[in-house]
Amino acid sequence: MDAAEAIVQSLDDAGIEYVFGLPGSVIMNVIDKFHESNVEFVSTRHEQVATSMADGYARVTGRPGVTLVHVGPGAANQVVGLGAAYRDASPIVAIAGNEDLERLGRDIWHEWDVENVLDPITKWTGQVRRGDDAARIVRTGLVKSVSETPGPVFIDLPKDVSREKSTYSDAQRSFYDHNELSVPFSRPEPHSADVECTLHLLEDATKPLVLAGGGCVRSGSGDALKTFVENTGIPVVTSNSGRGILDETSSWSLGVVGRRGSDGANEALGQADLVLGIGARFSGLTTSNWTRPDPETTLVQVDIDSAELASQYPVECPVTADARAFLESITDRAGNIDLSWEEEVISEYRDRVRTERAAFFAYETDAESIGPQRLFATILEEKDDDAIVTQGGGVHASFNARQPAADPHSHLHAISFGGMGYGFPFALGAKLGAPDRQVICVEGDGGFSMVMQDLETAVRYDIDVKIVVYNNFSHGTQKLRQARLFDERYLGTDVENPSFAGVADQFGMYGATVSDPSELRPALGEVLDHDGPALLDVLVDPTVWPSTDDIAQI
Questions:
Q1: Which residue stretches of 401-529 are H helix?
Q2: Is 508 within the bounds of a domain?
Q3: Closest Cα to residue 299, out of 323, 273, 279?
Q4: What is the pLDDT of residue 340?
Q5: Which residue segment(s) compose the domain that 436 sits in?
């Protein structure tokens, strides 16, 4: 057995289903070993796509997404995808080949300081320096990717080391038999004193509010949160990364707060006299640049990573614990306490959120062009109830973010890193991770153009994703800024596009174009009902924008 075989055997025993990447000379020895394993190597057309596919897979499964790419530029092309995974705490194990270890440091072909470049956007980096160390390094990376606050790790594999003799013991295999590599890897319980502290603060509060963040999603705390709020009557708002942890149509959900949140939810966060932040980092996006909650508001913060506690706000009761473990512990002891807001106050906020949502998607039924409100309202009405909708950055995201989330994985996007081009590869990875769910990518024409070469990947592997291109022939977010902040002095924001439906057809995929509002619903229905990957190029009215108030939010 050589080191390459030990690596593949480790991934196989760890339950890794897919490794996403591109072939290259320095990793060909590893790729060859997949023939004898249960792991499928999914070859993409660009390393950024491979990384974001791994990210989409990881977000819907909670298991590590694994990539394998070539040396030098191959590893460099992963930077954007790893940055998004790092900011959104998504577990990825990124393995990149390298030139021979004995020649590194002599300014050889392909050489660059990859570990130091990737260090700020990964939880851990390691290099396999001996063949016998290969299985240990892979195991370390897998565990670190899912432990505490999850995130990406990077493993550097020199070509000559991949061919060195290696061993793979029964003890190494047994580790994977007894340890499930998924998020959360462990569930630290809260200290009893922290639960007591929280209960005392809740007893004194008159307007308590739960702020549920991404940590709730990663801990799988949906049922525990639902039980807690039903028992106590405390309403819930979520961060963008916490969306869907409580069904946003639930009577206790006030929706999303922050820069892309609703006015009603934001006002509730500002009015609360106690905020119970569970798995929430109180980031600038969530708190509208730290304007809500008020710095004088009493805060409880629960996070699995103690380094996050009180890093943004002073916190009365910092709690290091898994979100679900905390909710289950406090629910057992809070059942007899009347913690609810006055019902009419809750109803007012809830009604405001629903009224805002309805107004946001309202459109003129006799319009001669397809406005974004009509497009997203139609998607909402036509998609499956449990569909996963993915998106990249762009003006379309301002509309997509207003669709109610029914579960924690109903909407996937690069929340904290932002940027364009994520929606399509997220959808590809999510479909592989959740093959029984409908997966719809809604991507702007600018972002889709960055990654559309991987339509071929969708066809080659028959990944049944549905792609809706929001096509306004511009970099819409920036054009909107030029319209409202720079007196309509446009430069660099208008583009020309090919027929995206024609491009899809050239790759062997069903594609259609629609510009007539009366044809939108049947055209979308055909794409959603098509057996296999399909694309709808929607020519959206480029003059219709989000409201003026949204300019600071996009």
A1: 423-433, 445-451, 455-460, 476-485, 500-506, 517-529
A2: yes
A3: 273
A4: 63
A5: 363-553
Q: Please, are residues 131 and 71 in contact by the beta-carbon 8 Å criterion?
A: no
Return the sign of the alpha-carbon dihedral for residues 444, 92, 290, 202: positive
Residue 350 pLDDT: 82
| Confidence band for 404, pLDDT divided at 50, 70 and 90 | confident
Pair 275, 413 in one domain: no
CATH code, domain with 369: 3.40.50.970
Q: Examine the domain organization and report whether 338 and 470 are in the same domain.
A: no
Q: Judge residue 542's burial from the number of C-beta atoms within 10 Å of its C-beta, 0-12 exposed, 13-18 middle, 19 or more buried.
A: middle
Task: Tell me phi and psi for residue 518, to 5 degrees.
Answer: -70, -20
Which of 273, 274, 276, 239 lies closest to 254 in space, CA to CA? 239
Strands (E) in 201-342, as ranges, are: 208-212, 236-238, 253-256, 274-278, 298-303, 317-320
| Average of per-residue pLDDT across 106-134 | 91
Supply 345's token pair: 């106050």
Whether 304 and 384 map to the same domain: the answer is no
Q: Is the pTM of this model over 0.90?
A: yes
**Distant-in-sequence, close-in-space partners of 384: CB < 8 Å, separation ≥ 6:** 437, 438
Does residue 398 share a domain with residue 544?
A: yes
Mean of the pLDDT values across residues 200-227?
94
Which among 128, 154, 178 is the end of a domain?
178
- How much of the chain is in helix, strand and coil states, percent to nearest 5? 45, 15, 40
Cβ neighbours for 355, distance < 8 A, ≥ 6 positions apart: none
Q: Pick from 302, 94, 308: which is nearest to 189 by CA?
A: 302
Q: How confident is the model at residue 357 (pLDDT cuts 50, 70, 90)?
A: confident
At 20-73, the pLDDT tens digits run: 999 999 999 999 999 999 999 999 999 999 999 999 999 999 999 999 999 999
Please say if the pLDDT value at position 341 is more than 80: no
| Torsion on CA atoms 403, 408, 411, 417, rounded to nearest 10 | 120
Summarize the confidence of residues 209-223 as an average pLDDT.
96
Same domain, residue pair 314 and 238: yes
In a domain, residue 314? The reply is: yes
Question: Residue 248's domain is classified under what CATH number?
Answer: 3.40.50.1220
What's the chain's average pLDDT?
A: 92
Asked whether 429 and 414 are in contact (CB, 8 A), the reply is no
Out of 329, 352, 375, pick the residue that ends a domain. Answer: 352
